[in-house]
Design a protein that fits this description.
This protein is an alpha/beta fold. It contains three helices and four strands. It has a four-stranded parallel sheet, with helices on both faces. Helix 2 links the parallel strand 1 and strand 2. Helix 1 runs parallel beside helix 2.
Length: 112
Amino acid sequence: MIQRTGNPAEEMLSDAAAHLPGGGRWLVIGGEASLALAVLDDHPGADVLRIATDIRHVDDLPADHPPGLRLDANAAHPHVAPGSRDVAVLPAPSDRALARRWLVLALAALSD
């Protein structure tokens, strides 16, 4: 396994996501930018929307990031239309209430 993230849990998540069908519209909620970049690297041509849930990760995308990656830095009110995503990837936060919130957002993004 090639280490692409600085977090072992995100590395395992990235490795699992690599085995999912390619392309599509991905939603990455939380985690470091390297997680979203790894998804895009494994799935060229995908449309990846990343929601930065930590203020420390809002500006961690490289300036030359691939065009298929977009950032929504408004974690309080993310702009994700219902049914607009095919796959959701989210590292589980330690806070249970926050985890429920991100799971509900992911479910809405995946459902029509």
